[in-house]
User: What shape does this take?
Amino acid sequence: MEFSIKSGKAEKQRSDCVVVGVYESAKLSASAAGIDQASQGFISSVLKRGDMDGKVGATLLLQSVPGTESDRVLLVGLGKESGLAEKDYRKAVVASAKALLKTGARDVANFLAEVKVGKQDAAWKASQMAEAVRDSVYRFDAMKGKKEQKEDKSGLMKLEIHLAEQDDNQATQQALKEALALAVGVSFTKDLGNLPPNVCTPTYLAEQAQDMAKTYGLTVQVLEREEMQKLGMGSFLGVAQGSVQPPKLIVLQHNKGKKDQKPVVLVGKGITFDTGGISLKPGAEMDEMKYDMCGAASVLGTFKAIAEMGLPLNVVGIIPACENMPDGNAIRPGDVLTSMSGQTIEVLNTDAEGRLILCDALTYAERFEPSAVVDIATLTGACVIALGHHASGLFSNQDHLAKELLSAGEQCLDRAWHMPLWDDYQPQLDSNFADMANIGGRAAGSITAACFLSRFTKKYDWAHLDIAGTAWKSGKEKGATGRPVPLLTQFLKNRAAKA
Ligand code: BES
Ligand code: MN
Ligand code: ZN
Assistant: This one.
């Protein structure tokens, strides 16, 4: 799809469809009013009939509106005229894209970015539009038969984002470029998440990282089992030992900052399938545990986005990737593993495997002398119970780092919520037989999981994002969301701007 920024009058556009906003109580946006005038009150009279209430996200498609040069005009509801909140703007844009996909329109002039949205500028409105539209037209048909792939091609080809004339400048052009780079990263993350677990194995993830390194000139290293044994990664390798798929520790480096700049390290959980192991999960919806590598996928997607942008920052990505399978050789409840940090872990539940692979990757991160480490993991079902599907759970040993991540999430509408990491919860991990247990009981499950990780991150500023509720959708719209790639990319952009 092709995106561009334009300015001009809605009624003068020669396109398959012009998109304009209307408010509740039949009040028109500037461009809707322009079309209304050119068509001698066509829009007003349609609204008077009551077919469109102007509520946020409502749409109405009009054909062959007199006085205009386009085949169609799509009206999109913007709610109360007093001003549109950020997430309502996004909702309206998504609604316009979904409505357009049902038409034959291929090139579109969208005027929604002309309206006032909170305190946001034109650059923000243009980038949100580009990203939201890319998000809405995303399809995953890599695994469909050849015939269906052909028929499935989405119609939207060209989108002109119309801004006021003074806003068609370098800043908005640059913002659009960055939004498109982000969209490439988000869609890569979705693809990796949506791929079946028999394709998207640890080896496949490693190959993707290697391909990316070649394309963008990044440094990549893939550690095999023997090297990890030498490093003493007994916890990670414990999880991996029940699978015939060889584990991989993927290390990617984007070195576009100053030479002496300490890197930000991103660590992503890469369980390419989580059966629970010997503590086997129930059968219902177990297919969704292919998404247990979405932390890893979000690290790779973020790398793609910042590589596309050429972001001037040093960033390291570390991905422990393996499967969690039940097997004659698998770890048992009661086993004690020795982590790379030297701390021993009693495995009371083999389904709490994410923390077991992350802890060794977090210890490995020390060697990069990071300015901050952020891990991203579909870690606990308890986080879904706590926050649902709207916010990622955020834990940190540094309040300033938590604030940085929270505000990055607010900026790009990919939000997280700050959870406590108080010492009060730590005793839940006490073990009679090792330095700690790998589970902390039913109470506060997402917090005790974070407490477990905190024991391996004492040497640097660290934050943990539990994305179990945000990384994918279940049900009819089942699929990866690409979150939290927008949050992570925004966080890194903010850091680069400060450096
Ligand atoms: N990958 C799961 C977490 C998960 C569960 C994510 C459901 C999304 C939806 C993780 O490895 C896991 O199984 N966690 C256990 C921990 C428990 C055994 C302490 C859980 O959440 O049930
Ligand atoms: Mn598990
Ligand atoms: Zn898991």
Q: What stands out?
A: The radius of gyration is 24 Å.
